[in-house]
């Protein structure tokens, strides 16, 4: 299989797993690009401007949408709700899209070559916040939050948001400090067998945070107009509610900046852990970032986390597909699902207390923070 076969397949997978149900525009465009690349068409040359690992749907479509923001008069904008467009995908869409890309290669190519998929979906906090509360309960100490791949650092404010966890029977469990002015309540659907009284202890109490820092190769300043425009471009055009949440969270983050360190997490994580106060426990976390790492990089991260956990108490919270998240530590398939029926993401914790490693599967999590199955239980290593 050639690199271009892999690229074409990426766009097909994007349709099947991510956009078919929520973005008619990207569903059509993804299939179009997949077919074009498979046939060696014009988009082969467009995507050739990016390294192989960056020839992915999110990056191509974000680059195009970012340039389209600067050309709202173009006919393509009529298809983009993010620019006020109301035209549904039709037979003219793909030609209009291809024409725009061809006309603006000088602007699109640099974004493809150097851009990063740094989507900062603030509603992911609704999934991470119970995990942080669980860590607080397990350690009985303040948390030093350290995020790997923070983008603009919105998830580092997780304790400050206002949450609404809604159960199937209509019960709503509130959570968070609700002190992020302007950010609307973040709603999360609760699935599975969890009952309100099983979740409430981890979201209703104040979360004591001693420090917060993000580690990123290219951290984004939430107060920078260009950074904001890129984050908006990474959102799918129809997702106007996500766009409103993003804008509000960026305003909050600009008013209450957190420390974002530029550098390779594998090189600077140790220093960040050591900088956490002695009376606190470092809580390193990552969500929706590890798919962009190489297998070698993920393996090195596991080794590093284990080394740091042998030196001092530490908790690693991970929200990723099980295979590239918690499964890297367990060395076994996810015991909660049948082979071939993997859930999209698993929320887990790797706990080091007194140098001993313990694994916990905290639950399953839906895309963009939409839903959570909360069921903390120990996970045996292979």
Strand content: 15-25%
Question: What's the helical proportion of residues?
Answer: 25-40%
Biggest sheet overview: 11 strands, mixed
Report the radius of gyration as a whole number of Å.
21 Å
**Count of individual beta strands:** 11
* Structural domain count: 2
In the sheet with the most strands, the strands line up as: 3-2-4-11-10-9-8-7-1-5-6
User: How many separate helices?
Assistant: 13
Question: Which whole number gives the mean pLDDT?
Answer: 94
Name the shape in a single word: globular
In angstroms, what separates the terminal alpha carbons? 32 Å
User: Structural class of the secondary elements?
Assistant: alpha/beta
Q: Which spans of ≥5 residues are poorly predicted at pLDDT below 50?
A: none
Oligomeric state of this protein: single chain
Order of helices and strands: HHHHHHHEEEEHEHHEHEHEHEEE
Pfam families: DUF2332
Protein name: DUF2332 domain-containing protein
Word description of this protein:
Helices cover 40% and strands 19% of the residues. The protein has 2 domains: 3-114; 122-379, no CATH class. The chain has helices at 3-19, 24-38, 42-47, 57-69, 93-103, 105-114, 125-139, 196-203, 225-233, 240-255, 265-274, 295-311, 327-330; strands at 143-148, 163-166, 172-175, 186-191, 209-216, 259-262, 281-287, 314-320, 345-353, 356-365, 371-379. The mean pLDDT is 94. The two termini are 32 Å apart. A hairpin with a 5-residue loop joins strand 2 and strand 3. An 11-stranded mixed β-sheet has the order 3-2-4-11-10-9-8-7-1-5-6, with helices on both faces. The longest helix has 17 residues, at 3-19. The protein is of the alpha/beta class and 382 residues long. The chain contains 13 helices and 11 strands.
């Amino acid at each position: 299989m050639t690199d271009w076969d892999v690229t074409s397949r990426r766009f097909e997978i994007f349709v099947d797993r991510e956009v078919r149900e929520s973005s008619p525009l990207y569903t059509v465009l993804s299939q179009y690009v997949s077919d074009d690349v498979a046939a060696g068409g014009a988009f082969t040359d467009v995507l050739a401007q990016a390294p192989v690992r960056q020839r992915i749907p999110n990056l191509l479509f974000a680059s195009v949408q970012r340039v389209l923001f600067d050309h709202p008069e173009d006919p393509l904008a009529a298809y983009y709700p993010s620019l006020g467009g109301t035209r549904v995908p039709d037979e003219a869409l793909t030609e209009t899209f291809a024409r725009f890309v061809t006309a603006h290669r000088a602007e699109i190519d640099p974004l493809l070559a150097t851009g990063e998929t740094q989507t900062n979906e603030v509603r992911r906090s609704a999934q991470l916040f119970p995990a942080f509360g669980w860590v607080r309960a397990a350690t009985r100490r303040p948390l030093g939050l350290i995020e790997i791949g923070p983008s603009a650092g919105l998830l580092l404010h997780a304790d400050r948001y206002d949450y609404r966890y809604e159960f199937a029977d209509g019960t709503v469990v509130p959570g968070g400090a609700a002190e992020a002015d302007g950010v609307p309540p973040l709603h999360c659907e609760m699935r599975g067998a969890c009952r309100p009284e099983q979740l409430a202890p981890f979201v209703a109490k104040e979360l004591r945070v001693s420090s917060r820092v993000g580690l990123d190769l290219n951290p984004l300043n939430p107060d920078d107009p260009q950074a904001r425009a890129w984050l908006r471009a990474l959102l799918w055009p129809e997702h106007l509610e996500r766009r409103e949440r993003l804008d509000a969270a960026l305003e909050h983050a600009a008013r209450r900046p957190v420390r974002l360190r530029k550098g390779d997490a594998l090189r600077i994580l140790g220093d960040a852990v050591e900088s956490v106060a002695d009376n606190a426990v470092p809580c390193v976390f990552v969500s929706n970032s590890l798919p962009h790492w190489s297998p070698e990089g993920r393996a090195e991260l596991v080794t590093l986390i284990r080394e740091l956990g042998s030196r001092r108490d530490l908790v690693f919270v991970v929200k990723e597909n099980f295979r590239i998240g918690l499964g890297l530590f367990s060395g076994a398939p996810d015991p909660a699902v049948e082979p071939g029926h993997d859930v999209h993401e698993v929320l887990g914790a790797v706990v080091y207390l007194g140098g001993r490693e313990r694994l916990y599967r905290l639950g399953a999590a839906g895309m963009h923070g939409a839903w959570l199955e909360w069921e903390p239980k120990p996970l045996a290593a292979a």
